[in-house]
């Protein structure tokens, strides 16, 4: 699919565009991940199993669509998309461990520690995180080392205690505590929102875009992240296991604080739609070139898996 | 302690110099690690607990001593030393987990998952890895972004499947298999050697040193890593728990492949000394300025903890 397909928005639907990005990023991931060999082959097999198992590839799509606004070559945005997907995969591997969310299913398949073993799963996650930063720091990602360092800093900040890891810590600590809306919002903004924000910020960074464009995409990504996470909580509350490719209904069973548990199902639905609308408002300065980003905001709240 | 203390070698003993570096890197770590606050405070407490628990700080010492050969400002080498120590600490946290080496003691204290819990320990390790790359990518580490990217690439490669994680995978896979010298050597070169090599390479990279100097330090670090790891296996085989600050004799109890199990105790001792001598030979081009690196090669084989 051409880049015009992503940024034009009239010739392909967002679902087709996401499918095309998913195939493209899978090819890049396949090339960037090491090949199993030597006595350490098992951990490489586990990395490939967890990372090449499909998924919507929403984050790489956001990188590619936001980069498309600034005429960034596709090869660069796909590398950043692959890096973010490595971090996303590592977080799913570790979150599924018995000591964390204890989930046996992921994307409709046995989770990594069920397919391999716990030690291999922990190590596979660790190595995926390292590889993500190696990919970002490589000159193929961008000829300007200053931009590469900015991407490394942003991804590190988004995945550490102020982002993904901090959010997961809050999630675990809030289990069974009847946490209120404030805690749930903070948890999701960190656990899921920070990497969605990174994905939308990577485009303008790769394209050396002016501050106003960066701010507009940051505002967009904040609303998008909330819409996405509320929709995720709704899917877990009402979904069935096959649809979402993981064990559904676990949030309630584990006493997790979710938007559904603090707001109720219908108010949560309305709120997700409101955040999707607010996300689109922030794209006005980009005119028709941002149609794919507009459509993906609606997609994340309308999806059934 | 002045930098001359590190590179001069006549005024202070290597033990004094290591103690001074340890104090300096602890101050930098204390400043770089986040402060516990918010509902995610627990994971930050675990990161600080595991990272500020002392230890020899051999890797930061190697960074500082190798950087001193090229007149690198101390603030820069200490930041790189702090980053490598974050990666080292994360690896110890994860290695101690029940699913891995299942160790209750680390540096004479309860290991991270015993002091906190398994989930918090996994997350603390994950966040420490992210923070290490954030520190390296920051402009305070070096004004030249190309050099910062090189450090990120090197640390990522040294801690992934071709380095530390790959070595730990081999270590786990080799348990109870009567692995031979080839596997044990490969395992240690990856598990411990890769980060020691990074530490000795960071100095010439920070100092934009010529290729011949980089190669000499790479050769030195390879021999040093072997000397260090053989000595470590000897300490485990004959040590007592208090001395080495972790549970001794576990290698044999777990059927681990070690240099002692494949070579025997006395031949292992001779081999460690031989590697320490070989390490020193590679320092000839640096004259008296490399005395601290010479002495640390002897220190790692003579240490009792």
What is the compact description of this entry?
Two copies of one chain form a homodimer. Chain A has 305 residues and is mainly α.
Describe the fold and architecture.
The structure is a homodimer of 305-residue chains. Chain A has a single domain, classed as Farnesyl Diphosphate Synthase (Orthogonal Bundle). Chain A has 16 helices and two strands. A two-stranded antiparallel sheet of chain A has the order 1-2. In chain A, helix 15 runs antiparallel to helix 16. Chain A is globular, with a radius of gyration of 18 Å. The N terminus of chain A is likely disordered. At the A-B interface, helix 3, helix 5, helix 7, helix 8 and helix 9 of A face helix 3, helix 5, helix 7, helix 8 and helix 9 of B.
